[in-house]
Amino acid sequence: IVESCEVTVSTPISGIFKDKGNVMPSPEVIISEVCRYYSVSVDDMKGQRRTAELANARQVCMYLIKKLTNLSYSQIGKELGNRDHTTIIHGGNKVEKMLSDPSFRNIIDDIVENIDAKI
Hints:
The chain is built from six helices and no strands. The chain has helices spanning about 25-40, 40-45, 50-70, 75-80, 85-100, 100-119. α1 (about 25-40) crosses α6 (about 100-119) and α3 (about 50-70) packs across α5 (about 85-100). The chain starts with about 25 loop residues before the first helix and ends with a helix.
């Protein structure tokens, strides 16, 4: 699997993507901000329930943790309730495809801006 690095976020966090060599947010900060944005608990985020809302929030978490940290897919899976690395790959790919939708892109930008404010 080849990761695409073409997608960048147009908010201040663009300067902290892992390939820039700067400060990275912790997975806990990313999870916390995604949970806050989607109004779900961290327990639900890491749990086994699979409502559409939770699945979407989890996939956003997967994508952002991969883009903003140096964690492997397996490590991200452990952070999100011991999910398999293939689940993390699939979730990140789904978010990548949805970024072409401007309204979804705005959601990602808002979450990233909130993460940026926390670090």
